[in-house]
């Protein structure tokens, strides 16, 4: 079976063509870098996404956060819900873990910005 | 407080910070960045999604992370910056310096002077009025960026049932963002037959969440007097005119507009900088210098970029060139025009000084439509400087052609950039 | 018992409140909206008309000319924007007798400074007039005003002189009681000796609550397009076309804020809330506007809007005591209502005084301190202001150079703004080319803080569900 997909690794958005046989990706073309091939393989078997959102803080304004690594695509809403129910401490540094093992994915949530009190 | 500088940079977003770093690294120490917000970083602070920095840092960062890395560098290099500072006016003076009038709580209303000024004010969104959408003017109609600021920086909840007009990247990003915030995004309508956003954003912001992208569609009426109640979306014909009878009603409490960005050049025009009607940014030469000596322009105020990495790269060059200008004055020499032809909407720069070429010259442009298997041609007179075949060219992508010095060294005729389409 | 209740806080209601507040009277203004200036007053041509349009002998003629005379001094004392920019009425026909009729009419009405000039003379002073212009009537006393600031100034002056304002309060009925009326609202009843009906397009509805005589008000829709601020004005005068039966035709005029305004259309409708723009209407504005002026920057439209004019059946203003003693109508106040408003206030005071005799206050304050317009200050003044209050050093609206200080003043002053549109009308924040894209989040945060509500609950306009003021 042939599957067409657009690589989302970088803004180039390469048009990939992948051959899938028995649930496995056997050949990828159209990619300009090795990440494209990897993307097609993951996307067609176990797709993942990096999630970015905000977490509330004690200071009123929210702080931007992200998953430290990509998480399974079908866990996006669970992870967002876990982030929404947490509060980031202030001050916080960019890269600080603000929530561990979000929604049981094993992936930590880190602050994407340094923020002082208030 | 000090009031005379070698270089004043207007704007402390990605362009301004990179310009400052570029100038500093080129050996200039007397720099001041003026930023209107209370933090450095500009629009990146509200762009909390990832996808920034692949070219610059070889990793994928969020907007705030990208901004913070540059801000840290600015601090590390000891480059002075002043926040909550609004520049109201830039005026060339008779001695060649520029007067920069500003307002800030710290300084009051004062005029500073500088040998060189770098314009790095960024761009703004096209508002509803400019789109001429008839109907009421209720609460709930926002530009995508305003909604983004409210949601991401203020933690406000903007709406529950959302329609987005325009498939620019901010619109696509906000479709996902609103979905993650618990809203339902009913549709993204795009007037053109193609999206003006990046393909990856269509995949990961719309397709991932089952949000339909309606190409060749637009909002034709807005309902709700005080609060938005819904919009009518109609299909448009090849002349972009709504097709009667194709209207579909979408009840919604929020309409986000992502219909294009406009470089914010009121200051530049006031200073006498000539504006290119194709980009709404300044006409610049290969040094990114405008028609006014010692006034440089870079980033989204020069032309709207697709990637912040390109903004940083361009702005760094502007900073280095401004530093060179402070040291050596304006470079004289032979300038050739850069003109555009078939399939190319504009080019930056519009002039190249072939007597003082840097190691690498960038020519940046966008195409006018979707082209498959076309070739980018750069010619000077009869001489072909470059020919590059491309599988696909789209208007949402800014193209960056880098030419080595020897390619341009003895060029005397105008340089023409155009596309050669495949003859079928 | 309140002496006078005024229903409607538009230009007429507020001007009348101001006039009555000169006397030893208790005055209460009621409006269903959360701010003054929310109806017809907020969406019109913003012209202080010279007064050549109305038929001699009508109330319109008399009150227009009187209003026009009063306006300049009021603008100075109450600090609202007013520019006497002159006007021209263009004639595209070789037969220019229409202009003579207007000139004679104007002179009969007592309008000074009217003259007829040739097409070339007109183009010499307004180079962007089209070649089709054959002749023009020049009116030296015509002016432009800021209708928001004017109405807010009237209201604030009335308030300072003791008038009460009950906003977000809708009149649901009026009952005749001994010595006056019981005005019923969604927020309780108010008893008053006299009631003035200044309810704009709803004046017929209010009128019918007490009167048995018929009164019909038809909303006449007028669509406008507003263009970006200009460094070199396309026209500096207000440019009319010879009137037709459906009103003054399309005008093209600068505004006091330096924008270019074109409109209005004139379509009679039934729905008193229908302020939607239409593509037909906007096309008409473009087509007719281009007849008068070439090079109108239609590509720089920053917003379009619709105003509803309250049109009566007689063709004249209806300002009189109704068949219910003590109930006064100020109805059918279409153009030139804005110009006439202060004169209508005077006239109504005279009418009311015949019913309830009253005397002047000794301590009437005839001035008002407006919101500072930072953009209009000199650098020295700006510097001084920032040193006194650093909030004036923080620019919130970058298109119109409006500071946090101005926005805080607009929010904190009596009858202050509670909505984004309220802030816009008092300070100009959000009126510029980005149409509040940049400044509205900050304005929302400032309003939310003052009202003690969530940022996302700040309204653009309209009435808050719970009490916030």
In terms of topology, how is this protein built?
The complex is a heterotrimer of chains A (118), B (424) and C (469).
Chain A: E1 2-6, E2 15-21, E3 24-29, H1 34-45, E4 48-49, E5 52-57, E6 63-67, E7 71-72, H2 76-84, E8 87-88, E9 97-99, E10 109-111
Parallel strand pairs in A: 5-8
Antiparallel strand pairs in A: 1-2, 2-3, 4-7, 5-6, 6-10, 9-10
Chain B: E1 4-10, H1 14-25, E2 31-34, E3 50-52, E4 61-62, H2 63-76, E5 81-82, E6 85-92, E7 98-104, E8 108-119, E9 123-125, H3 128-131, E10 141-143, H4 144-152, E11 161-165, H5 169-180, E12 184-190, H6 199-206, E13 213-215, E14 217-223, E15 230-235, E16 248-251, E17 254-257, E18 261-263, H7 266-271, E19 275-276, E20 281-282, E21 295-297, H8 308-328, E22 335-340, E23 344-348, E24 351-353, E25 360-367, E26 371-380, E27 383-393, E28 399-404, H9 405-408, E29 415-420
Parallel strand pairs in B: 1-2, 1-8, 2-5, 8-21, 10-17, 11-12, 11-17, 12-13, 22-29
Antiparallel strand pairs in B: 3-4, 6-7, 7-8, 9-18, 14-15, 15-16, 19-20, 22-24, 23-25, 25-28, 26-27, 26-29
Helix pairs in contact in B: 1-2, 1-8, 4-5, 5-6
Chain C: E1 2-7, H1 11-20, E2 27-30, E3 47-48, H2 59-78, E4 82-83, E5 87-91, H3 97-108, E6 114-118, H4 119-125, E7 135-139, E8 143-145, H5 147-160, E9 164-166, E10 171-177, E11 180-185, E12 188-197, H6 203-207, E13 218-227, E14 238-241, E15 251-254, E16 260-263, E17 267-268, H7 279-292, E18 301-311, E19 318-321, E20 327-331, H8 337-355, H9 379-388, E21 395-397, E22 402-403, H10 404-412, H11 420-427, H12 440-451
Parallel strand pairs in C: 1-2, 1-12, 2-9, 5-14, 12-20
Antiparallel strand pairs in C: 3-8, 4-8, 5-7, 6-7, 10-11, 11-12, 13-16, 13-17, 13-18, 15-16, 19-20, 21-22
What does this 3D model show about the protein?
The complex is a heterotrimer of chains A (118), B (424) and C (469). Chain A is an alpha+beta fold. Chain A has helices at 34-45, 76-84; strands at residues 2-6, 15-21, 24-29, 48-49, 52-57, 63-67, 71-72, 87-88, 97-99, 109-111. Chain A has two domains: 2-45, no CATH class; 52-111, Roll (CPE0013-like fold). With 424 residues, chain B is of the alpha/beta class. Chain B is 21% helix and 36% strand. The N and C termini of chain B lie far apart (67 Å). The mean pLDDT of chain B is 94. Chain C has helices at residues 11-20, 59-78, 97-108, 119-125, 147-160, 203-207, 279-292, 337-355, 379-388, 404-412, 420-427, 440-451, and strands spanning 2-7, 27-30, 47-48, 82-83, 87-91, 114-118, 135-139, 143-145, 164-166, 171-177, 180-185, 188-197, 218-227, 238-241, 251-254, 260-263, 267-268, 301-311, 318-321, 327-331, 395-397, 402-403. Chain C folds into three domains: 2-41 and 148-216 and 314-355, FAD/NAD(P)-binding domain (3-Layer(bba) Sandwich); 87-140 and 218-311, D-Amino Acid Oxidase, Chain A, domain 2 (2-Layer Sandwich); 374-457, BFD-like [2Fe-2S]-binding domain (Arc Repressor Mutant, subunit A), CATH 1.10.10. By secondary structure, chain C is an alpha+beta fold. In chain C, strand 10 and strand 11 form a beta hairpin. Chains in contact: A-B, B-C. Chain A binds chain B through residues 5-11, 13, 15, 49-54, 56, 60-62, 64, 66, 73, 76-77, 80, 94, 112-114, and chain B through 45, 48-51, 54, 60, 62-65, 68, 151-155, 177, 180-181, 198-200, 202-204, 208, 306-307, 391-392, 397.
């Amino acid at each position: 079976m042939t599957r067409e997909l657009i690589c989302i690794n970088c803004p180039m958005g390469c048009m990939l063509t992948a051959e899938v046989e028995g649930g496995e990706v056997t050949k990828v073309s159209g990619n300009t870098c090795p990440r494209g091939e990897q993307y097609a393989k993951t996307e067609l078997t176990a797709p993942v996404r990096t999630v970015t959102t905000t977490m509330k803080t004690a200071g009123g304004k929210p702080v931007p956060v992200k998953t430290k690594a990509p998480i399974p695509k079908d866990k996006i809403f669970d992870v967002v819900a876990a982030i929404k129910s947490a509060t980031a401490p202030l001050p916080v540094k960019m890269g600080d873990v603000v929530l561990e093992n979000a929604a049981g994915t094993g992936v930590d949530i880190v602050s994407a910005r340094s923020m002082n009190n208030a | 407080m000090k009031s005379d500088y070698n270089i004043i940079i207007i704007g402390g977003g990605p362009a301004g910070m990179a310009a400052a770093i570029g100038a500093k690294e080129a050996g200039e120490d007397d720099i001041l960045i003026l930023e209107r917000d209370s933090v450095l970083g500009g629009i990146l602070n509200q762009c909390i999604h990832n996808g920034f920095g692949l070219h610059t840092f070889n990793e994928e960062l969020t907007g705030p992370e990208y901004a913070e890395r540059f801000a840290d560098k600015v601090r590390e290099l000891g480059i002075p910056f002043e926040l909550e500072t609004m520049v109201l006016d830039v005026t060339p003076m008779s001695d060649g310096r520029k007067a920069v009038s500003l307002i800030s709580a710290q300084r009051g209303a004062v005029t500073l002077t500088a040998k060189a000024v770098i314009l790095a004010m960024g761009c703004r969104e096209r508002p509803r009025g400019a789109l001429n959408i008839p109907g009421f003017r209720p609460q709930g109609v926002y530009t995508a960026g305003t909604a983004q600021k409210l949601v991401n920086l203020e933690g406000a909840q903007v709406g529950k049932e959302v329609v987005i007009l325009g498939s620019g990247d901010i619109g696509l990003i906000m479709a996902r963002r609103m979905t993650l915030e618990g809203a339902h995004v009913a549709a993204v309508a795009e007037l053109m037959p193609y999206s003006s956003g990046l393909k990856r954003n269509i995949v990961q912001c719309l397709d991932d969440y089952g949000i339909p992208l309606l190409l060749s569609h637009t909002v034709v009426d807005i309902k709700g007097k005080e609060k938005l109640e819904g919009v009518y979306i109609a299909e448009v014909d090849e002349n972009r005119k709504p097709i009667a009878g194709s209207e579909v009603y979408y009840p919604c409490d929020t309409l986000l507009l992502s219909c294009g960005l406009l470089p914010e050049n009121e200051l530049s025009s006031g200073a006498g900088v000539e504006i290119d009607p194709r980009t709404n940014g300044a006409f610049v030469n290969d040094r990114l210098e405008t028609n006014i000596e010692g006034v440089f322009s870079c980033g989204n105020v020069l032309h709207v970029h697709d990637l912040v990495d390109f903004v940083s790269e361009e702005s760094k060059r502007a900073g280095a060139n401004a530093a060179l200008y402070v040291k050596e004055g304006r470079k004289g020499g032979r300038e050739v025009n850069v003109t555009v032809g078939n399939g190319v909407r504009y080019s930056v720069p519009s002039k190249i000084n072939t007597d003082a070429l840097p190691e690498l010259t960038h020519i940046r442009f966008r195409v006018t439509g979707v082209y498959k298997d076309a070739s980018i041609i750069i010619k000077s007179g009869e001489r072909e400087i470059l020919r590059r075949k491309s599988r696909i060219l789209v208007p949402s992508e800014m193209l960056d052609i880098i030419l080595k010095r020897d390619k341009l060294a003895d060029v005397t005729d105008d340089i023409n950039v155009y596309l050669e389409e495949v003859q079928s | 018992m309140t002496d006078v209740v005024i229903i409607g806080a538009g230009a007429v209601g507020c001007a009348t409140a101001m006039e009555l507040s000169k006397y030893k009277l208790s005055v209460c203004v009621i409006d269903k909206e959360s701010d003054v200036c929310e109806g017809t007053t907020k969406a019109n041509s913003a012209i202080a008309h010279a007064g050549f349009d109305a038929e001699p002998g009508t109330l319109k003629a008399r009150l227009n000319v009187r209003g026009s005379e009063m306006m300049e001094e009021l603008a100075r004392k109450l600090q609202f924007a007013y520019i006497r920019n002159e006007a021209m009425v263009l004639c595209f026909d070789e037969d220019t007798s229409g202009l003579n009729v207007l000139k004679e009419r104007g002179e009969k009405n007592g309008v000074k400074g009217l003259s007829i000039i040739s097409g070339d003379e007109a183009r010499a002073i307004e180079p962007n007039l089209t070649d089709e212009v054959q002749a023009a009537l020049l009116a030296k006393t015509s002016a432009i005003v800021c209708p928001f600031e004017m109405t807010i100034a009237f209201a604030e002056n009335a308030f300072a002189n003791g008038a009460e304002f009950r906003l977000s309060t809708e009149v649901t009925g009026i009952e005749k009681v001994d010595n006056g009326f019981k005005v019923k609202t969604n927020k309780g009843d108010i008893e008053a000796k006299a009631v003035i009906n200044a309810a704009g397009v709803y004046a017929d509805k209010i009128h019918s609550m007490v009167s048995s005589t018929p009164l019909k008000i038809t909303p006449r829709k007028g669509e406008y397009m507003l263009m970006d601020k200009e460094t070199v004005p396309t026209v500096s005068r207000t440019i009319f076309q010879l009137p037709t039966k459906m009103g003054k035709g399309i005008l093209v005029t600068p505004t006091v804020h330096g924008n270019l305004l074109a409109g209005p259309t004139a379509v009679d409708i039934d729905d008193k809330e229908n302020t939607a723009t239409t593509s037909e209407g906007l096309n008409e504005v473009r087509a007719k506007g281009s007849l008068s002026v070439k090079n109108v920057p239609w590509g720089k439209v920053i917003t379009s809007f619709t105003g509803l004019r309250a049109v009566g059946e007689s063709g004249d203003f209806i300002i009189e005591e109704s068949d219910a003693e003590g109930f006064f109508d100020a109805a059918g106040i279409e153009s030139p209502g804005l110009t006439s408003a202060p004169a209508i206030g005077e006239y109504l005071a005279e009418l009311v005084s015949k019913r309830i005799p009253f005397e002047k206050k000794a301590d009437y304050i005839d001035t008002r301190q407006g919101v500072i317009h930072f953009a209009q200050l000199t650098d020295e003044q700006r510097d001084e202001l920032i040193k006194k209050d650093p909030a004036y050093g923080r620019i919130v609206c970058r298109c119109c150079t409006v500071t946090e200080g101005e926005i805080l003043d607009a929010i904190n002053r009596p009858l202050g703004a509670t909505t984004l549109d309220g802030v816009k009308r008092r300070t100009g924040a959000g009126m510029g080319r980005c149409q509040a894209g940049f400044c509205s989040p900050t304005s929302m945060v400032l309003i939310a803080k003052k009202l003690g509500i969530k940022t996302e609950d700040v309204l653009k306009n309209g009435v808050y569900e719970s009490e916030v003021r």
